[in-house]
Task: inverse folding
């Protein structure tokens, strides 16, 4: 039962930084999912997949795992590349491609 500690990425409909500042702890699946023969749904008997814990800092999540004796893996977040862009760059003479309507 290994736990993953990571910062969740924001979803596609989100432009701000709300709900992405916390660290999340999820458990790795212990058993593979099985297809139910009657309905064809994917099911699992592993209840730990439904548990998600949130922490304010990475150190709190690590301390929780060490206190409970849970092996863990920390996944560091990738910082997005910020490129400063100005509206005036659309009309620059050094623009890579010509501006047309």
Result:
């Amino acid at each position: 039962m290994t736990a993953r500690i990571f910062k969740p990425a924001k979803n596609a409909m989100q432009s701000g930084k709300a709900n992405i500042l916390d660290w999340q702890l999820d458990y790795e699946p212990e058993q593979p999912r099985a297809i139910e023969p009657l309905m064809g749904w994917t099911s699992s008997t592993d209840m730990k997949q439904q548990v998600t814990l949130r922490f304010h800092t990475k150190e709190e999540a690590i301390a929780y795992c060490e206190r409970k004796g849970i092996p863990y893996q920390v996944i560091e977040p990738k910082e997005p590349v910020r490129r400063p862009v100005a509206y005036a760059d659309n009309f620059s003479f050094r623009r890579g491609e010509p501006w047309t309507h």
Observations:
- The chain has one domain: 3-77.
- The chain has a mean pLDDT of 86.
- The helical segments are 58-68.
- DSSP finds one helix and six strands in the chain.
